[in-house]
Predict the structure.
Amino acid sequence: PATVRRDLEELERLGEARRVHGGAVSVGEKRYEEPFFDDKAAIAKSEKQRIARKALELIAPRDTIYLDGGSTALELARLLREYGGAITIVTNSLRAATELAGSGPQLILIGGELRRLSQTMVGPLTRLMLEAMHIDKAFMGTIGLSLEAGLTTTDAGEAYTKELVMERASEVILLADSNKVGMVTFAQAGKVSDVDVLVTD
């Protein structure tokens, strides 16, 4: 045990590994276990707020926009409560819908299967509504982003809905803080070429 401990300390000193309880993990790979929504929203909060303020500048009066279920899109929803332009917001996010339920632009909530971890409606049932819509700008989130794997998430149903939204949008705007870059998770939710604009820190 003493030798292993010294070896792990040396690997950490060299930047090759990070010690955790019971051992170490590679720093070369970003492994991800999706936290609950409120925990995820607290990560890089100031960066997400800055990204949301920049994204707000991309919205024009009379746009029909889609807000994805991510925590950065929720920050944008908070800014849209007081938006003066006559826009329509489409979302699968229960959190964004709650944020906008009291005041703000016209709101359309997509139905589907509730994914409790992300507080979103996902899966094949979302197709019934989304196929009938044209979306000017889709503000999307992602859990992972890499050139090779594209946009990735931890849930196949969520990936399905994300891809469907991006197909229906004239412009796809990805809101992603730098913690997402280089991370690859379970299900591909789009290719990098599907994204028209990246707003990041």
Q: What stands out?
A: The two ends are 42 Å apart (CA to CA). The CA atoms of residues 156 and 187 lie 6 Å apart.
